[in-house]
Amino acid sequence: MIHLSEKPWIVGKEFLRMDSWEKAFGKAKYTADYFIDGLLYVKVVRSEYTHAFIKGIDISGAVRKSGLVKVLTAKDVPGVNDVGFFLPDQPVLCSDKVRYLGDGVALVVGQSMEDAAEGAELVKVDYEPLPGIFDPREARKPESIKIHEKGNVIDYHKVRKGDVKKGFDESEVVVENEYRTGSADHAYIEPEVALAIPEHDGITVIGSLQCPFAVELACRKVLGNTVKNVRIVQAATGGGFGGKEDSPNEYCARAALSAVLTRKPVLINHTRRESMIGHPKRHPSIIRRKMGASKDGLIKAVEAEIISDGGAYASLTPRVLFSMALCVSGPYVVPNVKVDAWSMYTNNTPSGAFRGFGKPQAFFAAESQMDEMARELGLDPVDFRLKNILRLGTRTASDQLLEESVGLEQTLLKAAKESGWKTKREEYAKQSGTKRRGIGVACVHHGTSLGPLGVDTGSAIVSILPNGKVIIKTGITDYGQGSHTGFAQLVAEVLGAPFENISVPLPDTEHVLDSGPTVASRSMFMGGNAVKMAAEKIRAKLNLIASELFGCSEKEVVCRDGLVYSTRNPSKSITFENLVIKCVEKGINLTETAWFHNKFISWDAEKGQGHPWISYSFATHIAEVEVDTETGRVKVLRYFGAHDAGKIINPLLLKGQVYGAIVQGIGYALFEEVIQRDGKILNPTFMDYYIPTIGDVPEIIPIFVEEECKFGPFGLKGIAEVPIEPVLGAIGNAISNAIGVPMRSTPFTLEKVYSAIRRGS
To answer: Which of 88, 252, 636, 738 could tie 436 with a disulfide, CB 3.0–4.6 Å?
Structure first.
């Protein structure tokens, strides 16, 4: 183990994101900013039906149009016609059947975007319509038609602990309810875009994406043996939130296919309407949950049934469903648990990855019912949670023993104190008039990294150039979370290099190693571990040369802020850059590669038990709202977000994650909903799909607890998704506190809140 300074000198300090200036001044180069001579444009011909057989495709009218270069259909795919993320169920172009209105049946390549769009209108498809299924409960019925040959079940997961029948027999109070959550769009600033460029030995695709190596695999599959090399480059990306984890497989493969078959560079650039219609959404869910407790407030049992709408294709549904199943019991000690979770194919728009990955839906059900049980028991909701929350030495619903880094109780106590919980609960119980205030709480636990349903590995290449500049190469993408800035801080801390000496280029599959998907709040944990390990290997080499110069042991060498010296005699020193020159003169290689593998997990799917995550982040949110009882309008007044994310690497970036996620969660809670009727999205633009504006943003008070994790670099854990996960529960419980009626369906629109008030009055 190399010697580091007793106190971190850069970890824990605030630094602006490395790309902040170039983005602020418009110098960042997004995919659509690349201008290439001879560029062609691609338009997708999409299905006219939610479910239908394709009997024929007539491209003759389009082919005759001037300005059109080529029209491609499934028969033109040289490789495997599939871009499914986990399951091979999604064609790049449909050949025999369409399953939702966003399905692509042809690609029209034109000399301009207008030519391509007009040509797409001239492609005629002969369909044989089929009945559609738009309710996942209908899809479960044995007599329902099959959307896919294998049947309508995408996946099933279960959790089992103890004896749930015995637990309910021992319960003195039982509550049972159904909770529903709606579909939502990521609403990222930049819609989907990909630029494909033919090369002499293959194809290069530049795109707005999260997972470059997954895109490479999809493109290779579709292109087959037509190219030798496939190179994927991430451009500056205008937001992802999970939506650019799966959909780039489709649009990047379509761009690559068009470029290979025309031998010209091509651009696919979706409009907002195409984006809304085409890319996967947050999973709508129906959750039946039953909980039993003793009169003194100890939870005895939880039973839950989850049915989620996966839409037309599987996308990330298997993993999302797993997260829902593991979290629907809540962050509590529950001795007896039974959870059954299904996700079904329907003819709705596919559901996929979205910040929180199923946990916002699961925790909404859990935290809503916690308040309903507290009401039945006559207990304060915070006190009820304190009786049951996960602590050090307790076991989760999957029977995982929590042996370290459990800060949930601290987040709950701090949030309650900062918000003035007790005083406001008493005050709001006495109010009258048409404007009613309420305060609500929600707690969550979030498993670190991917869990057992994927190979969880991080990798990094760290190099010091002869001029003292440091380059970090990683397959982890940065699309807004600031992870590359965090990596630079980790490396600066280990090497002692000046922060301004460090750069982190955007991933290019030709020059970086596969670090797994940039999802699941795993960037800083998995990628950070690999980055730190590679830097430590180099630091050992620097220490060796420095010890020879200073005449001291390697353990006595300190590297800090560009200066290297000996603790035995601090007057003996050398600059970081000059030490690098000494290493170069001695022929020492200052490039190192490292891999970090998450090997501390296990899961038994048959038993529904195991150790699914290496560690957990925790959070408690408290929302304060005002409800207009005459209109149902809800305004969030103040919001307290307390988080245990382990060691804080950059407080500024951490606060940015908390602010952004809470605002996004407020939109999801109050008005964001993709409205589908018989598979058709009725609000496919921001004219009708409402997202928060500055007028909807309350005062947000972030609170941090640092329960360090021994597995994380410098003790950090994941954070990016966590702050959105309690928002539905906290706001829903605050509304219920204000109006005296439980809210069991999201979003909490004016109509729903007004109806609840009328029912309760």
So the answer is: 738
Instruction: Decide if pLDDT at 106 tops 90.
Output: yes
CA 684 to chain centre: 22
Give 390-430 pLDDT, tens digit per residue: 999 999 999 999 999 999 999 999 999 999 999 999 999 99
Give all strands of the β-sheet with 457-464 in edge-to-edge order: 502-503, 470-473, 457-464, 591-597
Task: For residue 103, give every residue at least 6 positions away whose Cβ sits within 8 Å of its Cβ, in sequence order, or none.
Answer: 46, 47, 94, 312
pLDDT at 1 over 50: no
Report the pLDDT averaged over residues 638-661.
97
Radius of gyration (C-alpha) of the chain in whole angstroms: 27
Whether residue 5 has pLDDT greater than 60: no
pLDDT, position 78: 98
Contact call for residues 306 and 341 (beta carbons, < 8 A): yes
C-alpha 688/C-alpha 65 separation (Å) is 35
521 to each of 207, 279, 528, 692, 745, how far by Cα in Å? Answer: 21, 21, 12, 23, 27
The 3-class secondary structure across 699-741, one letter per residue, is: EEEEEEECCCCCCCHHHECCCCCHHHCCHHHHHHHHHHHHHCC
Q: What angle do helix axes 727-739 and 421-428 make, rounded to 10 degrees?
A: 40
Q: Are 541 and 462 in contact (CB under 8 A)?
A: no
Cβ neighbour number for residue 359 with a 10 Å cutoff = 25
Q: How far apart are CA 658 and CA 648, in angstroms?
A: 13
Residue 667, number of CB atoms within 10 A of its CB? 22
Q: Crossing angle of helices 528-550/483-495, nearest 10°?
A: 20
| pLDDT average, residue stretch 120-144 | 97
How many whole angstroms separate alpha carbon 758 and alpha carbon 574?
A: 75
Q: How far apart are CA 669 and CA 363, in angstroms?
A: 13
- Output the CA torsion 379→380→384→389 (10° steps): 180
Determine the Cα–Cα distance for residues 436 and 627; give it in Å rounded to an integer: 5
Measured distance CA(649)–CA(491) in Å, rounded: 12
Task: Count the residues in the chain.
Answer: 761
Backbone angles phi, psi at 230, to 5 degrees: -125, 120
CA–CA gap between residue 47 and residue 263 (Å, rounded): 27
Whose tokens are 């290493």? That residue is 583
pLDDT 10s digits, 583-613: 999 999 999 999 999 888 899 999 999 999 9
Beta-carbon contacts of 535 under 8 Å, excluding residues fewer than 6 positions away, are: 462, 490, 491, 494, 495, 592
Element (H, E) at 582: helix 576-585
The predicted structure's pLDDT at residue 134: 98
**What is the SS3 assignment for 655?**
helix
Q: How many CA atoms lie within 13 A of 190 on its CB side?
A: 24
Predicted local confidence at residue 4, as pLDDT: 52
CA-to-CA distance for 553 and 551, rounded, in angstroms? 7
Which pTM does this prediction carry?
0.97
Cβ neighbours of residue 351 under 8 Å, at least 6 residues apart?
183, 280, 281, 282, 283, 284, 308, 309, 310, 311, 315, 317, 320, 343
Q: How far is CA 26 from CA 63, 103, 268, 502, in A?
A: 39, 34, 22, 22
pLDDT of 680 strictly over 80 = yes
Contact between 722 and 521 under an 8 Å Cβ cutoff? The reply is yes
The whole-chain average pLDDT of the chain stands at 96
